[in-house]
Amino acid sequence: MIPSFSAGYFKNVNVYIDGNPKYLNERAGSNTSHSNDYVTGDGWDTFERLRFRYLLPMGSGREHVLPNYAFDKGLLSDGASGGDSFNPLRSGRTYVEVRPFDRSQNIENDDLSGRQTANGVEFSLFWDNRDCAGNPSRGSRRNSTSSRA
Prior knowledge:
Blueprint: E1 2-15, E2 39-55, E3 70-72, E4 75-78, E5 93-108, E6 113-128, E7 141-148
Antiparallel strand pairs: 1-2, 2-5, 3-4, 5-6, 6-7
């Protein structure tokens, strides 16, 4: 699990949320809204994301949960974890990732106290077929992601 957190308090910031009296019949921040349809104020912006990654028991991940790279003068000499084949069953490391997220923005000014939230989850299938993730000389990596808010 890899967590990522962010929190910040901002003053006099433009936020694209509903509440601007000049644009009452528009949804702020949408594709059809006016570029000036925002609210200015002070507020908090918080963000949380967790990443859960599971190594599938196939390819190089079948025998070695952790790669055992050996280097000679800065170049990979043994322990390549991919780059041998374009078949994920034989080469590379395949991961399934789940990443839930949550974001909240609070804004206040003399006329408005508003809150905007978004949360959801991302699902990824990631195939890393590089011979050495930190310093690859052959191979590639592929990622397919889908998210739902």
